[in-house]
Amino acid sequence: MNPNASVFVPGGYAFDTGVSKQFVKEASVSTLPQVASTEEELQRVLNHLASEHVLAIDCEGADLSKGCWFLQECQPNKLQHGRLCLLQIGTMHGEAFALDILELGERAFELGLRALLEGERPIKVVHDFRQDNDALLHQFGVQMRGLFDCQLCDVMLRRLGGHRTGYVTGSAKLLSSRGILQGSVQGYGILTQEQKQAIHDRFSRDRHLWERRPLPQDMVEYALEDVKPMLQLQRLLLQELVEALGEQDAWQLVKEGSMAYAADFASQRECRCRLCCNAAENARFDGFRFMQRLQALPSQRLNPHILRRIWRQEDAQPLPLPGPSRFYVNEADESVPLPVS
Ligand SMILES: [Zn+2]
């Protein structure tokens, strides 16, 4: 893969991803905050990103999904959970920023972030945005647009190759499947898999870890790590999808498919976080619900012949909702696994 290859975006124009731009940007990056937690810092980061055509986006939070913020009226005794804390943004120049949504609150969205997230441009490259979208919609009323979901793109590629897609692929596996290894992308691989696992275990137990301030540096690195290689992955996946479908159909499918996939949890009444259900079952791909959404689109938005190509027999039946949570919150306010009976 040529790292300087052009990236195609709908509308037929291509933009340069060359190294030269990276050097031009570097001088200004050093003055930008790694974590934007004041309105002034947020505006500097958003101004810096204003000319980008494509960004990688990810979120961190405490038991992220719609959470009790949405459910509390009908379930007033429900434990407070499901808070969106950070929103990370990566650029194709290897930069990564975290926006401290916990500190900035609703105001973050009124200072330009809502326009960025709700616009068709820039394209927002994500990896499984279902819980993030659920939180953004129900906690801040954000209606995402312009998504490119790498996990969904992988599902589509496997379907086009004639394979079953009962389960989605995690980001580490998807990256390594395309030869994107730690150290191969600027800033990707600062943390080892063991360090990442240790942090994951920490916030798995400490429900409020992403809500603590100041954020420890290793948590910041952990949060930024995932957005760094995502744009390289997106280029490779898009190239494969274009080879399979042609440019126009590939873009139609990934655009509408990413939106349908992101809407899946947000459109359900149930919270899909780890405290409300067995979130391990979120790794199943519900082809029935996904295809129903796509079939409801007008043909000018998604050509029906694309639907025929990705249809599989298993799409005829919906999946049951995930079973009960495997975690509970103990008297020390920690989330701990239920004993295995
Ligand atoms: Zn929940």
Write the layout of secondary structure elements.
Elements: E1 7-8, E2 14-15, H1 19-29, E3 35-36, H2 39-49, E4 54-62, H3 68-71, E5 83-90, E6 96-100, H4 101-104, H5 107-118, E7 123-126, H6 130-140, E8 147-149, H7 150-160, H8 171-177, H9 193-205, H10 217-225, H11 230-245, H12 247-266, H13 287-295, H14 304-310, E9 327-329, E10 335-337
Parallel strand pairs: 3-6, 4-7, 7-8
Antiparallel strand pairs: 1-2, 4-5, 5-6, 9-10
Helix pairs in contact: 2-5, 6-12, 7-11, 7-12, 11-12, 12-13
The chain binds zinc ion.
Return the average pLDDT rounded to an integer.
88
Question: What's the helix-strand series?
Answer: EEHEHEHEEHHEHEHHHHHHHHEE
State the low-pLDDT regions, or none: 1-24
Q: In which range does the helix fraction lie?
A: 40-55%
Sheet with the most strands?
6 strands, mixed
- The helix count comes to 14
Residue share in β-strands: 5-15%
Quickly count the domains.
1
Using the 3D structure, state the CATH architecture: 2-Layer Sandwich
- Structural class call reads alpha/beta
**What is the name of the CATH superfamily?**
Ribonuclease H-like superfamily/Ribonuclease H
The CATH class label is Alpha Beta
Q: Evaluate the radius of gyration.
A: 20 Å
Q: Give a count of the beta strands, DSSP E runs of length 2 or more.
A: 10
> N- to C-terminal separation?
50 Å
Predict the CATH topology. Answer: Nucleotidyltransferase, domain 5
Shape: globular
